[in-house]
Amino acid sequence: MANNVLISASLSPTSTILSETILAIIETVNAVESVLVQRENFNKFSIYLERLTVVLRELSKLDVNNSDSLKNAIEILNREVKVAKRLALNCGNRNKVYLLLNCRRIVKHLKGITKKIRQALGLISLASLDDSLFVSDEISKLCTNMLDAKYQITVVEEEILEKIESGIEEQNVDRSYANNLVMLIAEAVGISTEESELKREFEVLKSEIDNDELREDMAEAVQMEQMIALLFQSDIITTSEEIETKYLSKRYSLGRQSIGTSPTFERSAIERWLADGKNHCPLTMIPLNKSLLRPNKTLRKSIEEWKDRNTMITIASMKPKIQSNEEQEVLYSLGKLQDICIERALHKEWIVMEDYLPILIGLLGAKNSKIRKHAEDILCILAKENDDNKERIAKVDNAILFIVRSLIRKVEESKSALQLLLELSRSNVVRNLIGSVQGCILLLVTISRSDDTQAAKDANELLENLSFHDQNIIQMANANYFGPLLRLLSSGSESAKMMMAKTLSEIELTDRSKLSLFKDRAQDPLLQLLSHGDIEMKEVAVKALQNLSSIQQNGLQMIREGAVGKLFELLYCHRLSSTSLREQALATIMHLAISTTSPEADQMQVSIFESEEDIFKLFSLISLTGPNAQQSIIQTFIAMCQSSSGFEIRTTLRQISATRVLVQLCEIDNCTVRASALQLFYYLTEDTASAMGVISNLPKDSQMTQWLLDAGALQVIYSCLSSGNANALHKKEVIENAAKALCRFTIPTNQELQMKVVEAGFMPLLVELLVHGTSLTKQNVAISLEQFSESSCVLSRPAKKQAGFFGCCLASTGTGCLVHSGLCTVESSFCLLEADAVRPLVKVLEEQHIGACEASLDALLTLIESDLLQKGTKVLAEANAIAPIIKLLGSRPRKRCKRKL
């Protein structure tokens, strides 16, 4: 800071300048005693000068000639003290009214002089003052005091200046307003309120205006002229004739005219002057000629510059108000700023230059909705047709985020935010920033579907502007807005088509979206891409079609439009070695096949196969592909077997020995393919016994059991076991295999599954088969009953005893199960006793078939396990089971039977 106030050293010795400065200070202090205005401020300043004199006198006693820095500091003090002296003399000699009107400038000068003196003292303290600690301390104290110095005008002066400024701003004050101002000024400066005295004072004021030394620039000169023009509207200090002449000669307007070689006046004033019959110039008295009236372009330009300067001042002065905490003041200032924006394009540049953009964007986080909306409207005006301003707005921290957040606020604020984003989106640089804000595109898509026509139109236009970027289009597609995506898919570059097709293949689409895409013909470009030379392009196209074809309505439309043929071409093209492409094509064909099972397809009689050769070629791929492809092929044929052309499909598959292939697939490790192969096998085979045999020999893992359950195997088994003509050889085999197949559904580790079997009505059927079935049937039935019985102990509910007096005197009616002691039923605990299965099982012990005997014995032994031994033995004895068991041991002394006993 010191360097900013340094000036080149004078040629005079330091001691001489020091003496001159002390003398100038004394003269300034004396001049202060005579000032007419700002006495309190000048007295404060005078005290600082007196203390400065003490410091300088002490300094003069030291050897100061050898210090250049000290010399520079003294020269600064000398110069500023002389400036202060001139200011004090002016304030003692100038017109009082003039001094009041300039009181702010006077205070400003005092502050400036004090600051520069303090800076100069700082330079002295930096110089070598080792010889005088007193001087150094005094300078330090004085600098501190001057730093805290406060100069201000009085309340009365401030009130008068505010009234003058208000009158200038309103531009429509009357004479009474001016008269009141004149009287207030007279009382404030202490002059007589008599008309003659007032006129004299204000005439002196006019003469001093042209020699105003306090004015620093043109703006201050214009402001002073405005003050004078306002005050001289008072009829206290001006006659009616003078007012009219001054009004004609002094009022500023863009309509100023020249009268020949005469001075310049306002055109309307000239016309009124001439209309009153006055034909001479009021100043030069030269005769007037209407034909010589012409615009004064120079003056017009000056007035425009003056008005521009006023606007710039207004713009700058509103910043603190807009940043204040008073909401009403902020709203008023924003409204005024918006009006200034609208007036001229140049005003927008000034607002941006005043650094309003961060302020306005900061207001977007305000609590008041009206403030946020005003700020958005102004930003929109600033951004309109100005790419630089658009970029400046976007560069402010979190600007786009704040605007996007306003989209979800009140309707009017949301519309303003939408219009602002739309304007910003017209800049290539800003577009990407808008799309990158999380949730922005989703909000725009939502607005585009609103009932507000204009908002929907703006949102659609904004989305179109954002669609220049592929990632934005993908976001739109995720929000179910597909227009830009379909456009690029149809007519974009190769890379764009690839990306759009990939998007359709990967995003999760609702059924409604899939139908909408087909309505907009999304399938057309995708089907065309199936013929593309690039394998990767084919893959994304097929995958997209696979995604869209999961809706039956879309699948039928694809069949009608010949999509099946193109998909078959991909499958049978020897040049294509892509496994994933084949798998996706087969999955799509599967969707098309499933669509043929719909009621609509029955009416249309559609099929994916045109000939038996098509059936053969597709089925033959089972042996050449992996599990995923095999699953799709099998499911395709399962669907086609259920379609309107199912009979022909099943006949053809039997002719090509498809059942042999399916039997082989039932033995592979992949559970999904095994289950599907079994399901198709069921549709194809005429030998139910063989089908049941396959089911009974499938791996007994839980997943396979669940798949069989889902496929309806339990109902099929029940149907087989309850066949009417069980004596026929074929039917016997069916029942035997069905009984064996049932065993997987009765395992004791899955009581929920056991419950489903019982609820399906199997238990009475099994007991009946123990009597009428073949030995093999009885063996498998006994196994199922054994597995049921193993769960009975756990499921049997304890019997409730009757409490109270009657419970002691009366015999209990709820004695419970004779074996399990609880309450048992067939449906709740699968109890063999309740199912009346004990005696039929005992009867099976007499069979010649060792497997049936052992299975029956296993079932009966579940009644005497652990704690059930005593009660179970009694039940077996009552059922005459002891003798058959002993006989079984005697006739067939097998180790396994003995071990069980």
UniProtKB/TrEMBL annotation:
<dbReference type="Pfam" id="PF00514">
    <property type="entry name" value="Arm"/>
</dbReference>
<feature type="repeat" description="ARM">
    <location>
        <begin position="521"/>
        <end position="563"/>
    </location>
</feature>
<comment type="pathway">
    <text>Protein modification; protein ubiquitination.</text>
</comment>
<protein>
    <recommendedName>
        <fullName>RING-type E3 ubiquitin transferase</fullName>
        <ecNumber>2.3.2.27</ecNumber>
    </recommendedName>
</protein>
<dbReference type="InterPro" id="IPR011989">
    <property type="entry name" value="ARM-like"/>
</dbReference>
<dbReference type="InterPro" id="IPR000225">
    <property type="entry name" value="Armadillo"/>
</dbReference>
<dbReference type="InterPro" id="IPR013083">
    <property type="entry name" value="Znf_RING/FYVE/PHD"/>
</dbReference>
<dbReference type="GO" id="GO:0061630">
    <property type="term" value="F:ubiquitin protein ligase activity"/>
</dbReference>
<dbReference type="Pfam" id="PF04564">
    <property type="entry name" value="U-box"/>
</dbReference>
<keyword id="KW-0677">Repeat</keyword>
<dbReference type="InterPro" id="IPR016024">
    <property type="entry name" value="ARM-type_fold"/>
</dbReference>
<dbReference type="GO" id="GO:0016567">
    <property type="term" value="P:protein ubiquitination"/>
</dbReference>
<keyword id="KW-0808">Transferase</keyword>
<dbReference type="InterPro" id="IPR052608">
    <property type="entry name" value="U-box_domain_protein"/>
</dbReference>
<feature type="domain" description="U-box">
    <location>
        <begin position="264"/>
        <end position="313"/>
    </location>
</feature>
<dbReference type="InterPro" id="IPR003613">
    <property type="entry name" value="Ubox_domain"/>
</dbReference>
